[in-house]
Amino acid sequence: MIRRSTNRRPESDELSTEMSPLSPGLYVHVPFCTVRCSYCDFHVAGYRAAIAERYVDALLVEADLVAESGLSPRTIFIGGGTPSALPVGAWGRMLEGLSSRFGGGSLTEWTVEANPGTIDEEKARIALAAGVNRVSTGAQTFDPQGLKVLGREHGPEVVEGAHALLRDAGFRRLSLDLIIGWPGQTVRSVETDLAQVARIDPDHISLYHLSYEKGTALERRRELGRVTPLGDDAVIAIARRALGGLRSAGYTRYEVSNLCRPRQESLHNLNYWQRGTYRGIGSGAASFDGVRRFKNRPDVGAYLRAEGRPEQVEVEEIGAQTALEELLFLSLRLSVGLDLSEFRERAGVALADVCRSSLAELLGERLVELGPSHLRATERGFEVLDAVILRLWEDCQRIARIRECR
Predict the structure, then answer these.
(1) Torsion sign across C-alpha atoms 92, 305, 33, 75
(2) How far is the C-alpha of 240 from the C-alpha of 392, rounded, in Å?
(3) Hey, is 216 helix, strand or coil?
(4) Where do the CATH 3.80.30.20 domains begin and end in the chain?
């Protein structure tokens, strides 16, 4: 028998009800970096000012075509790469150009990523004037050894100065990225990070676990035995201390890797996790229209040659089974969890019927909790979320087999 939890989560754990609908989003990719971080497997390119200027030209031509299609985004997110590495002229042209095309009344959130060492007063002023209302900076850690391991250019003191500069410029929504689990990290270094977070006081924290991605400098060093990854127990202890400290400071975990002050969730990212639609512009940028996924070819040279009409690659039609699987694994990333009625509507069968055995096991292990309307991962479940989702997903394959037999 599957028992449901009747405990309601505290109100502070609930997402803002006025966030919906969040679609469509607009993602703008700026691939340039002055130095590639050791853990990075994103589509990035070495920074050259002349290429960056031409890239912005092509980006705005593509933006014209997207605007002409009628896109009116609720959110914009400019990521990279390092958008703030652009020279000030290109930075201004890009932001002002995007504002003139997409800065209408439907836009509620506009985020730009900035490296603490490449944002300055002039760039902050230009961004605010264009309509940017949220800035995300990549601290990753405040431990000097950790910054060296991760290949970061900035020193630990630069982040605090960047946030002070942004607040003085008029930004009220600031996010900070941290990475945990890097080689050599200790619980003591987490205390250093928590102390600096308290000094900076951002309203949003992204707390990522380090992963060793194929082709990265850090993975090559691991293969050569030059770095030793932390064991699972050490990473869990570090994560628990980081999460505990952030909760004590007033942050609420609303997604497996993201925490915020009340009502300061990243709306753009929530749109992704809720399977909303989005359009990507720029080299390597991905799009989803509700039925089809595709991305622009991740090649800066090809993007420049295409003059705003990039080749679309990795085109995928999203069928009913894939949509159901995405609903499962994306929803369980969120603290609100999986909407059981939405699952039943899409699947034609209740989750408790198709996943009876795995649900009973996960509930018994206290990795999930089942309420009247949602299935949620517990804090323990979040620690092994991939395994939780895999067990449910394997049961969900039965739905596809049932459909094939009809």
Answers:
(1) positive
(2) 25
(3) coil
(4) 20-273
Topology of domain 320-405 in CATH is: Arc Repressor Mutant, subunit A (1.10.10)
Residue 253 φ then ψ, to 5°: -80, 115
Token pair recorded at residue 66: 């997207």
Count of alpha carbons within 13 Å of 238, Cβ hemisphere only?
A: 26
User: Is 310 in contact with 302 (CB distance < 8 Å)?
Assistant: yes
Label residue 115 left, alpha or beta by phi (over 0 means left) and psi (-120 to 50 means alpha): beta
pLDDT tens string for the chain (406 positions)? 343 333 333 333 333 333 347 999 999 999 998 888 777 778 888 878 889 999 999 999 999 999 999 999 999 999 988 899 999 999 999 999 999 999 877 899 999 999 988 999 999 999 999 999 999 999 999 998 988 888 887 778 889 999 999 999 999 999 999 999 999 999 999 999 999 999 999 999 999 999 988 988 988 988 999 989 999 999 999 999 999 999 999 999 999 999 999 999 999 999 999 999 999 999 999 999 999 999 999 999 999 999 999 999 999 999 988 898 899 999 999 999 999 999 999 888 899 888 888 999 999 999 999 999 999 999 999 999 999 999 998 888 876 655 554 4
Question: Strands 286-288 and 32-33: what pairing?
Answer: unpaired
d(CA 176, CA 198): 12
- Length of the chain equals 406
User: CATH 1.10.10.920 spans which residues of the chain?
Assistant: 320-405
What CATH number is given for 20-273 in this structure?
3.80.30.20
